[in-house]
Amino acid sequence: MAKIGIIIYARTSSKRFPKKVLKIINKRALLEIIYFRIKKKSKKIPVIINTSKSKSDDQIIDFCKRKKIKFFRGNLTNVIERTIQCCKNFNLDGFVRVNADRPFWDFNLMQSMINFYLLNNYDIVTNQFPRSCPKGLACEVATTKIFENLDFNKLNKNDKEHIFNYFYRNNNNYKIFNYKDNFYSKRKKLNLSLDTKEDYSIVKKIYGSNKLDKIINLKTKKIIKKFD
Question: Per the count of CB atoms within 10 A, which of 43, 145, 219, 221 is most buried?
Fold first, then answer.
């Protein structure tokens, strides 16, 4: 069976909200909450923090070492290159992309998409082509082969940062399946990501004083009802 990994992309140099991935929510860093929400459902699938070699991201590496979390470092701006190197380092045949600004990450949706990917012959299983879920629940499962076979001369600066853009733009050359969840399709205008200080206040209010175990197990669809 193909070896799948879950890659969490994290950096501290966000322009709108610097160091947001390490912001504290009820005594826990956002990155820790996301990691353990994913780890709960990942079973034997490795979960890897993918960050840059920039000195500003040393804090993320310190965090990973303290929590004994697997990590990989690479080029800050060429994320697609960093992804390829990460997959090679951990011998991954495929991977799930997760951004570290997703405090309400749906581990059940992720697992369903992984299962679908493993049972079918697609290059990419996504809920982003077109987007069929709220912002903050973007999930993509892809084979590493399509990345390894890329001609880097055809990539623009935006492609290197947003790693699936090239494939979506050239979708006729790839087998892409758009995975839809009716519950989320009806609520795709919601914003469930953490991009600003205002978002941070909302996340803290929703998670409240709950202990980490409860936060990890809290289902995303139950959280969304608070937005409804």
Answer: 221
State how beta strands 94-99 and 176-178 pair: unpaired
pLDDT tens for each residue of 85-116: 999 999 999 999 999 999 999 999 999 999 99
CB-CB contact of 72 with 53 (8 Å): no
Question: Residue 156 is which amino acid?
Answer: N
Decide: 48 and 126 in contact? Cβ < 8 Å: no
Question: Residue 4 — left, alpha, or beta (φ > 0 → left; ψ -120 to 50 → alpha)?
Answer: beta
Instruction: Tally Cβ neighbours within 10 Å of residue 212.
Output: 16
Q: What are the angstrom distances between the C-alpha of 173 and each of 154, 167, 198, 203, 213?
A: 14, 8, 40, 39, 43
Which residue carries 């979390």 as its tokens?
Answer: 69
Q: What are φ and ψ of residue 79, in 5° steps? A: -70, -30
Spatial separation of the C-alpha atoms in residues 140 and 113, rounded to whole Å: 8
pTM of the shown model: 0.96
What distance in Å separates the CA atoms of residue 44 and residue 10, rounded to the nearest whole number?
22
User: What are the angstrom distances between the C-alpha of 84 and each of 67, 113, 116?
Assistant: 25, 21, 23
